[in-house]
Write a structure and sequence with these properties.
12 helices, FAD/NAD(P)-binding domain, Enolase-like, domain 1, 30% helix, alpha/beta
Length: 467
């Protein structure tokens, strides 16, 4: 009987899909080469989830100390941004080195450099140390991610503007941080730096923040941030930016066409992200790009014969847990013969402001156009005992329930540890528990999750069937 030849694989990008997939394939006996041009771990570990949430923890400590008088505790607060950054980057380094060590122990060959397709499943690598390496493989997996997008704004490249990557390395607090863009990333940074002691102004072209979320939920979060000193300029289109000495001047136009200026010490650009496909030449391997530059894939993440795209580079929800699930879909198909797809995949997410904004499934505005009767249960955090005891009563809990089946269709939580409460309700949603089951469940007292009882005891709002 002839000896089985191990499959060969090239993985481009060591993010939260590429790294775990490379390790899994190598442990299964494949010959795996992983190409990474910067850091193992991808955006999440190096300039996304890990550093931002670590710094948010420091900012929250400062906020709790400043507001502790409300609980009868007096404290003086001094912020040392350099020490915060050192702690943050130490954690980043530990996570990164741990991931890289795991890959090497699995037998993955790690190449540092820039990858470019030269043909079907053929890759050329411009190595960091000089020279090139030509590779071909049975399978190629693209997990090259995305990067902060720069707006088409005159002067933006001349004023020392920062992206979400560079702002994490500042060692002195901005006197006045201007943030261009009012999305999820923007709001986390706005509260983070406001709590550390900076004056913060958010400039957003749209008339409202986070238009994908229910308006009352966003308004409640906006009120919290304004109470902590964040200034919002909504409906303000950026026209140009220039530096005048130590100051950055951002010219904006309002809905009435009238121009105004906002002046700050630093400018953070947070207007979206761009896929890293511009230098890959993916068309050479048979894959296609959509109009935004993302790689087009089917529900099994296949982009071409033997070519897969995973994580942010394929478009869709740009979350670490989605990238990781992409790796599981491909891993299980290739190693275990299990055909699971992205179709109908549950997509939970959490915005790590304080209070946290977390959601899975439908919200109220989506239920309103669903086309079948639903019930909306809403409970303000002012009615949650644990929130009252801890002094964290901003926000609300909301559940969308199918009227006929009594099953959950979606959950939104704006509140303390909102992501944890949402995750508990996500398990109920995926497990087929009804609103009646949750209303009658026994939860430990006094926990935040105990409020799930109260949520489904509240009088629901009925939405009529529209299309």
């Amino acid at each position: 009987m002839p000896e089985t030849v191990p499959s060969t694989a090239v993985v481009i990008g060591a993010g939260q899909a590429g790294g775990p997939l490379a390790g899994a394939l190598a442990r299964a006996g494949w010959h795996v080469t992983l190409i990474e041009r910067e850091h193992v771990g991808g955006t999440c570990v190096n300039e996304g989830c890990t550093p931002t949430k670590t710094m948010i923890a420091s900012a929250r400590a400062a906020h709790l100390a400043r507001s502790s008088a409300d609980l009868g505790v007096m404290a003086d607060v001094t912020v040392d941004l350099g020490r915060i950054v050192d702690r943050t980057q130490g954690i980043v380094r530990d996570f990164r080195e741990g991931s890289e060590g795991g890959l090497r122990r699995a037998g993955v060959t790690l190449l540092r450099g820039d990858a470019r397709f030269t043909g079907p499943r053929q890759v050329e690598v411009a190595l960091d140390g000089g020279g090139t390496r030509a590779l071909s493989a049975d399978h190629v997996f693209i997990n090259a991610g995305a990067r902060p997008r720069w707006p088409d704004l005159p002067g933006v490249h001349d004023v020392g503007a920062l992206t979400s990557k560079e702002v994490l390395l500042l060692r002195e607090l901005p006197t006045h941080l201007l943030i261009l863009g009012g999305g999820y990333i923007s709001l986390e940074f706005a509260q983070l730096y406001a709590r550390l002691g900076s004056r913060v102004t958010v400039v957003e072209n749209g008339e409202r923040l986070l238009p994908r979320e229910d308006r009352d939920v966003v308004d409640a979060l906006k009120t919290v941030l304004e109470g902590e000193g964040v200034d919002f300029r909504l409906g303000a289109g950026a026209r140009r930016v220039a530096r005048h000495g130590a100051e950055i001047v951002l010219d904006v136009s309002g809905p009435n066409g009238r121009e105004a200026s906002v002046t700050g010490s630093h400018l953070l650009v947070a207007v979206g992200r761009t896929p890293n496909t511009d230098t890959l030449n993916v068309e050479a391997t048979g894959a296609a790009l959509d109009r935004h530059g993302f790689i087009v894939v089917d529900e099994y993440l296949r982009a071409a014969d033997g070519v897969y795209a995973l994580g942010d580079i394929k478009g869709g929800p740009a979350f670490t847990h989605i990238s990781y699930d992409d790796h599981r879909i491909v891993r299980d198909a290739l190693l275990h013969g299990q055909q699971r797809s992205t179709k109908g995949r549950t997509v939970p997410y959490t915005l790590f402001t304080d209070p946290q904004l977390a959601r899975v499934g439908l919200d109220r505005q989506q239920a309103a156009v669903l086309g079948r009767p639903t019930r909306i249960y809403t409970l303000p955090m002012t009615s949650v005992a644990r929130a009252i005891e801890t002094g964290q009563t901003a926000g609300l809990m909301r559940a969308v329930v199918d009227d006929a089946s009594d099953l959950l269709l979606g959950v939104t939580v704006l509140g303390p540890d909102g992501g944890e409460i949402m995750s508990a309700l996500q398990l109920a949603l995926q497990g087929g528990l009804t609103a009646t089951d949750l209303r009658n469940a026994t939860f430990a007292h006094p926990t935040l999750c105990e409020s799930i009882n109260n949520l489904f005891m509240a009088a629901p709002e009925s939405l009529t069937c529209t299309s």
